[in-house]
Amino acid sequence: MKRFAVFSLLASLALVIVVPFAVAGASATAAAAKSDRSPAAPIATTLSTITGIAISPLLGTSAYGAYKWWSADEKSRAALPWYAQPKFWLPALLIVGLCAAKDALGTAVPPGLKKPLDVLETIENKFSGLVAAGAVIPFVMDAMAKMIFSGDAAAVAAPPVFAHTGVAAIHLAAFEVTWLLNLLTVPFGVAVFVLVWLGSHAINVLILLSPWGAIDAALKAARTGLLGLVTLSATIDPWVGAGLSLAVIVLAYFTAGWAFRLTVFGWLFCWDFLTRRRNRFSPAENDNVIFAGPNFPGVPVRTYGRLVQRTEGGLEFVYRPWLRLPPRSAAVPVDRRGLAVGEGMFFSDIVAENGDTLFSLPPRYRGHEAIVARAYLLGGGVQPAGLCKAWSELRDMIGGRAIKEPALSA
Questions:
Q1: Sequential DSSP letters for 302-333
Q2: Are residues 101 and 202 in the same domain?
Q3: Are residues 152 and 53 in the same domain?
Q4: 28, 143: one domain
Q5: Helix 213-236 and helix 2-33, axial crossing angle in degrees, nearest 10
Q6: Is the pLDDT of residue 167 over 70?
Q7: In this structure, are 329 and 214 located in the same domain?
Q8: pLDDT > 70? residue 180
Q9: Highest mean pLDDT: which range of 109-113, 164-168, 399-403
Q10: Is the pLDDT score of 340 beyond 60?
């Protein structure tokens, strides 16, 4: 596993550092070899650009800015947007490299030390995604509109993901029409970005929840590899890159619900972890915030809702799909006497006697498991789970059963 993590680190760093500048170096050859003047070419270019940035906002934005700075002449560099200035993309690429190193070397770092870094990276991904959606994507869509009206063949033929777009626009009867196209296309571009970003951000949450560094490195390398594949395929042919980007968008559409639920869980996890909410929190006697687990029938996993005690004695899970739709409820299929709170290292679960996880508690409930068990009259009380269970068994084996059994046999 450690050997795999080292290879993942090298691959991630190579894609982070080498790909943007390799694409920049190949741009002149691509532009000379191919000149697509069709009106649809800027759309293919922009589709690949948005997809690449959405897959990894910080890496995509910084690499996109690095390419624009690299391909611009020295006189025009001062007029480039803020994300194309070295004072932004150099530190951004450094942060991305440090995150890749953190994941690849995670096998040698205890989970308790690595988890705060995972939380910070998840927050960074949310923040960079927000900045890219609000500031970078409108720039990209505006560049697409100007390319459509200018017919700049060189701009169209440049590598689509890190393309240096044209800035010329024409007037029709002294009327500037670029703003109208932006008005129609910017919401679409932002919607596509959010859709792909949700699926990509789910990888950050999976890394946050995973206790194994090798899995983290594999997930990060897969995402960075997808970004590199979109970039290189778009460099070879804009339509190949657009086709791959469209496949990514379709996949993101069909997994949007799962990714959204995982994003909500990750945000609440980060908020509770960073603010140490558990120190200022006490569970309610009823109606506590909770997430559906993988073994709760009829409800998608990680659905946000509340666990409510019904007047007739049963338990009920109440939730709103997409947090805004009309509320729904589902009865807990297991009698409360057969339930217990599984105490984990970072967050706890409500589990059945056979070990199936029905619910997951946010980190704010960590340390308050006994109160939850008493409030809902759970017959199994509190039991160790996950890493806590492994540590408990190891401790019993070394200092408990391993000592007691020889004493009894003597």
A1: T-EEEEEE-TTS-EEEEE-GGGTSPPEEEE-S
A2: yes
A3: yes
A4: yes
A5: 10
A6: no
A7: no
A8: no
A9: 109-113
A10: yes
Residue (of 215, 202, 11) closest to 107 by Cα position: 215
Please write the tens of the pLDDT for every residue from 282-295: 999 899 999 999 99
**Rg of the chain on CA atoms, in Å:** 26
Number of domains in the chain: 2
| Residues of the domain holding 13 | 2-270
Res 246: pLDDT: 92
Mean pLDDT of 98-117: 68
| 167 assigned to some structural domain | yes
> How far is Cα of residue 104 from the mean position of the Cα atoms in its chain?
17
% of the chain residues with pLDDT over 70: 70
CA diameter of the chain: 103
Query: How many CB atoms sit inside 10 A of residue 170's CB?
Result: 12
Please state, in angstroms and rounded to a whole number, the distance separating the CA atoms of residues 358 and 291.
Answer: 9
Q: What angle do CA 364, 367, 373 make, to 5 degrees?
A: 95
| 400 found inside a domain | no
pTM for the predicted model, two decimal places: 0.74
pLDDT at 410 over 90: no
- Better-scored residue on pLDDT, 163 or 383: 383
Indicate if 69 and 94 belong to the same structural domain.
yes
For 372-400, letters b (16+ CB in 10 Å) and e give: bbebbebebebbbbbebeeeeeeeeeeee
Structure tokens at 379: 């017959």
H/E element, 176: strand 175-176
Has residue 278 been placed in a domain? Answer: no
Q: Are residues 248 and 287 in the same domain?
A: no
Last residue of a domain, which of 270, 294, 310? 270
State how beta strands 382-384 and 328-331 pair. unpaired
Strands 339-343 and 171-172: unpaired
User: Nearest CA to 126 among 227, 12, 205?
Assistant: 205
Q: How far apart are CA 221 and CA 9, in angstroms?
A: 8
Q: What is the rounded CA–CA span in Å between residue 90 and residue 82? A: 12
Q: What is the CATH number of the domain that holds 317?
A: 2.30.29
Q: Is the four-CA dihedral 186, 192, 193, 194 of positive or negative sign?
A: positive
Helices (H), 72-152: 86-104, 111-131, 137-150
State the average pLDDT over residues 211-240: 80
